[in-house]
Amino acid sequence: MQKKDLKILLIIPSYRKIIYENTKIKVGRIDSPILSMAVIAAGLLKNGHTVKILDLNLFDNVQEIILNEISSYCPGFVGITVVTPLFNEMVNICKLIKKYNPDIKIVIGGPHVSSLPEESLLNSEADIAVIGEGDFTIIDIVNNKDLKDIEGIAYKSDGEIKVNVRREQITNLDILPFPAWQLYDLNKYHTSKLMSRKGPAGWIETSRGCPFNCCYCNKSVFGRRFRAKSSERVLDEMQYMLDIGFREIHIADDMFTTDVNRVKEICDGIIKRKLKFPWATVTGIRVDRGDEEMFKKMAEAGCYRIYLGIESGNQSILNLIGKNITLNQVRKTVNMIKKYGMEICGFFMIALPGETEKTIEDTINFACELNLDFAKLTITTPLPATPLFNDLDKNNRIKTKDWSKYNLYLPTNYIYDHPNLEWKIIQKYYNKFYRRFYFRISYILRTLKNAVLHGNLINYIIYFLKTKW
User: Phi/psi of residue 398, each to 5°?
Assistant: First the structure.
């Protein structure tokens, strides 16, 4: 039986403090409204329900805020999004809510829950776990459809956990409503000047799924099948975002440039519609998906920075992790992007499978050789449901499943034993990478010049002093 005008509260755990607080990239974190919750809220609103989003990143007194919201708003359902390092935070939120009112139904979702639905329910007081895409699943849940008939969920029933068949992925993404950005107060979000040129910056999802097979990547929500919104839908959504108050747009796709011709169509459309806004591919693109014409059109359409998934400067490591790119492809793509004046940020990883001190040195040298505008290094973290995690677990190298320790931006020595390297060596090279890359005289002079050009000199100096070198 369908229940209309049901109150639903969507909660975003506080990732700012838990994930970023003690990391080298704290000053460069992105403080933007969360896209996934705006997407889920849009479907619920379209279905006739009342929805609020509670972003705990905006508050210090988290428990008090949750209780105040629960008592004043009186939701029938609470939804919580969960990434691996925030699992324990979700558990605490569930305890707090159930202690206040055990009748409130709690639904959890996100990459961690989709990877480990049974464990997520077993170790929390949540009632239902959404597996995979939640756009239509959440509507079935709040409309009181019999749980046994809802595809794509796990749920508690008479002391047991039941797992239903997965829901088929959404083929036509154009049918989804625009994200419910109106549920956020955009004035409360202030993205670092390192990460944006204008604020507030907002995320757009133009596609779902990544067909590639890197060993460290979790595909439990959107899978490997690439599904894209039409270029016209993307352009309409961009216009909507600008109209609602965003001044910059960040691409949130797993792999935005999978279809190169679609990217060109989007860029042509931005120009034709005379949409003026800065944008960037913040989640990264592959170096083997793009040509010179595409990068030229991106620059002409307002893209000012491209993030590249490079990972390693050693070809053997790239082969071993299933990246399926070459170092020469990286060089070629970097040169093409530079030709059209866009900034480049390279994503790198160390402690990958097969890694040695020499291969890490290769990565540091390669990052410096490319002369990128920014470089971001992570110590490889084996996230649940990835081939990397499964291989380490099979070989008894996983030391803990305390998910709060699975932070991509902190040392991972508590999590697993690397087959080749001691953790003190890995940490030494982690620090060495950042010092070598960012303390080059040529880099400092070029960065200062660009900071002056874009009016960010004071901000850059402040960010530098706040960074833990």
Answer: -75, 125
- The segment(s) of the chain belonging to CATH 3.20.20.70 are 196-438
Q: What superfamily would CATH give domain 7-163? A: Cobalamin-binding domain (3.40.50.280)
pLDDT at 196: 86
CA dist., res. 301 & res. 274, Å (int): 9
| Rounded Cα–Cα distance for residues 353 and 432 (Å) | 20
Distance (Å, whole) CA 364 – CA 370: 10
pTM for the model:
0.91
Q: What is the reported pLDDT for 448?
A: 82
For 288-293, the CB contacts below 8 A with 24+ separation are 288/324, 288/325, 288/329, 288/333, 289/255, 289/257, 289/258, 289/260, 290/257, 290/260, 290/263, 290/333, 290/336, 291/260, 291/336, 292/336, 292/339, 293/264
Any idea which architecture 196-438 has in CATH? Alpha-Beta Barrel (3.20)
Q: What is the C-alpha separation between 138 and 428, in angstroms, rounded?
A: 45
Q: How far apart are CA 179 and CA 43, in angstroms?
A: 8
Helix (H) or strand (E) holding 50: strand 50-55
Using the structure block, give the residue that is written with the tokens 């039941």: 162
Distance between CA atoms of residues 82 and 114, nearest Å: 9
Q: Taking Cα atoms as reference points, which of 51, 68, 50 lies closest to residue 59?
A: 68
**CA 362 to each of CA 1, 204, 215, 313, 400: distance values in angstroms, whole numbers, following the listed order:** 61, 35, 20, 5, 30
Written as one letter, the residue type at 457 is: L
Reading across the β-sheet that carries 343-350, which strands appear in turn? 201-204, 248-251, 279-285, 303-311, 343-350, 374-379
Walking along the chain (469 residues) 10 residues at a time, the average pLDDT comes out as 73 77 56 94 97 95 95 97 94 97 97 96 98 97 97 95 97 98 94 83 96 92 94 98 97 96 98 97 96 98 98 98 97 98 96 97 98 94 94 96 83 88 94 93 84 67 58
Q: Where in the chain is the domain with CATH 3.40.50.280?
A: 7-163
CA nearest to 186, candidates 252, 245, 248:
245
Sign of CA dihedral 282, 288, 289, 293: positive
The dihedral region occupied by 181, where left means phi > 0, alpha psi between -120 and 50, and beta the remainder, is alpha
